[in-house]
Amino acid sequence: MKLTPETTLPIDGAAGALAGRIWRPDVGGPSVVAIRKTGVFDITAAFPTMRDLCEARNPALALRRAKGEKISELADLLGNSVEASRSRRKPWLLAPVDLQAVKAAGVTFPVSMIERVIEEKARGNAAAAEGIRAEITRLVGGDLRKLKPGSKQAMALKEALIKAGSWSQYLEVGIGPDAEVFTKAPPMAAVGTGADAGLHPVSTWNNPEPEAVLVVASSGAIVGATLGNDVNLRDVEGRSALLLGKAKDNNASACLGPFIRFFDDSFSLDDVRRMIVRLKVEGEDGFVLEGSSSMTEIARDPVDLAGQMLGKHHQYPDGAVLYCGTMFAPVQDRGAKGQGFTHKVGDVVTIASDKLGSLTNRMRLATECAPWTFGAGALMKNLARRGLLS
After folding, report:
1. Would you give the DSSP letter of residue 83?
2. Per-residue pLDDT tens for 158-180?
3. CA 376, CA 99: separation in Å to the nearest integer?
4. Which run of H or E residues covers position 185?
5. Distance between first and last Cα of the chain
6. Entry pTM
7. Are 42 and 287 spatial neighbours (Cβ–Cβ below 8 Å)?
8. How far apart are alpha carbons 326 and 388 in whole angstroms?
9. Is 8 in contact with 258 (CB distance < 8 Å)?
10. What is the spatial distance between Cα 113 and Cα 127, in angstroms, rounded to a whole number?
11. Distances from the Cα of 308 to the Cαs of 135, 275, 377, in angstroms?
């Protein structure tokens, strides 16, 4: 795995309002940085946390106006962000969020909805998936991409499936009025580009989930976006939906990055709505898997998803980031016929889009990834020692 500006930055380079977080060994803690054409600049004196920058009246403008010390060239920072070869004496990239809640929406694309139904009916058995997939597709029929969740047509389909004995809790959130929104990880637990990503060792059927991730201020305004890998354990969730927490929230299982791109004249919510999110998995065994998700095929608009997460019914005073879900369902056989895809330790996963750049991680067991030790309490103490809290 090699990270360079050419492979990491958006298609327009550093022209957008790009913000990140780095670990600075010289201060023993993280800093908020601006990614500019002339290098990487520490703006922590103006914005001690990424949460503070996201809460600015105009985050893109505030980022561009912020002054700070140049830390390094971007190429040097990226080169030291690959965990396997990292020097602990130099800065490296972290996930570009800190105090925000890390939330995720599930079953937002018709294709992924069908795969969730398959997981449920297979009870975690990958070998049973192929036959169940054919039967469920036959029962549902039609072009689900045109079906609006909560509509009369969706409710009519629900009744038909109930009568056929094929209703599922995943269909409920896929075509019903209420979205599935869950907590992916605690604040400060996500890992950034170049880091190792974690698979729980009990899982033998799992996959990456390449997603656009909304950055939402405490007001409910969507102020930017980043990329995410919502690492998923298909066998664990398939055994029971009540195991969603175990399937989704493990050490290093929430990947975000490489940067937050704030909305401005060069990047807007409409760009997110039109975004194509690409995936590439490269295994040490020579296996290669490629696919993509088009946000034009999402069943729920990003504004609807953000509104179901945050509003009068639920407040997030430090804001939140929200994985939007994926349509990519990896069914390509990696081993035995009919058993589909599953990760192997050492897989390198790259998630990319033109306007957000590339997020790259190496898959390891969660028990072998670096333990999460630096939380919100440690952040506050570190910022206080540095005289950055008022």
Report:
1. G
2. 777 677 676 777 778 777 888 99
3. 7
4. strand 180-185
5. 40
6. 0.90
7. no
8. 38
9. yes
10. 19
11. 32, 21, 29
